[in-house]
Design a protein that fits this description.
By secondary structure, the chain is an all-alpha fold. It has a domain of 148 residues. The chain has five helices and no strands. The radius of gyration is 67 Å and the shape is rod-shaped. The relative contact order is 0.06.
């Protein structure tokens, strides 16, 4: 019965149903693989775009550092002031690149998780598992390159600032030395004039003191002379008073003469 036409039709229908069922089962798997491949391509494109942005940011930072150094040499300004505007743009680009790279990594991890939840094994989709580590390595290398460039830029800025500070210190020391020498050269005549003026004042004071001493000596000598004169006058007056007190008056002298004559007469009479 199975070998008859009706049996062959039933067998063919069963095979067709099995094939249809297999096709129905295979279609989601193929769709899943196609979606996974598209997601992997999208992740690769996103990571590559992030890497390109990061590379561009690194190049922009290097160019900004070179421009800042050139401006600093031309204008004499500090590297920090000259590179302020350009470094802000470079920093913004680097931040955008880092954000894009982080988003790409998160997206790749999410796609891998979705594929594994959908039943895609590593054997079925080995390309994405291999692609993501390579992209992450590339991204990590770019980040390290950017960090090295930033460190080099900072070192260059520090060196340039140190050189500028050294030049400024040398200029300040030179100007200070010139100012001191000019002040000393200009101050020598003034010092001599001051010394001469002080000597003149000292001589004048000494002369005034000598004159005052001489005047005082003259006054003392005159006072001494006046005292001596007064003493002499007093002595003379005292001597005259004493002499005039012991000297007999004219009437007394006449009486004495008369008494002497009378005594002489008495003696002669006797």
């Amino acid at each position: 019965m199975l070998g008859g036409p009706s049996g062959r039709r039933a067998s063919s229908a069963s095979v067709a149903a099995t094939a249809a069922a297999a096709a129905a089962v295979a279609t989601p798997a193929a769709a899943t693989r196609a979606a996974a491949a598209k997601a992997a391509a999208d992740v690769a494109a996103a990571v590559a775009s992030a890497a390109a942005v990061l590379s561009s940011a690194a190049a922009e930072i290097a160019a900004a550092a070179a421009t800042a150094a050139k401006k600093a040499e031309e204008t004499g300004k500090s590297t920090e002031d000259a590179s302020q505007d350009t470094s802000e743009a470079a920093t913004a680009a680097a931040a955008a690149a880092a954000a894009a790279a982080a988003a790409a990594v998160e997206e790749a991890a999410e796609v891998l998780q979705q594929q594994r939840e959908a039943g895609c094994s590593k054997h079925e989709e080995p390309a994405l598992d291999l692609l993501l580590p390579l992209l992450l390595q590339r991204l990590d290398w770019l980040v390290r390159q950017q960090q090295q460039q930033q460190q080099q830029q900072q070192q260059q800025q520090v060196q340039q600032q140190q050189q500028q500070q050294k030049l400024q210190q040398q200029r300040a020391a030179s100007l200070r030395d010139k100012g001191e020498r000019y002040s000393r050269a200009k101050g020598q005549p003034e010092t001599r004039q001051q010394q001469q003026h002080q000597q003149d004042q000292q001589q004048e004071q000494q002369q005034q003191q000598e004159q005052e001493q001489q005047h005082q000596a003259e006054e003392q000598e005159e006072e001494q002379h006046q005292r001596e004169q007064q003493q002499q006058e007093q002595q003379q007056h005292a001597s005259y008073t004493l002499y005039s007190g012991s000297r007999p008056k004219p009437q007394q002298q006449q009486l004495r003469v008369e008494m002497s004559l009378q005594l002489l007469r008495l003696c002669l009479l006797l």
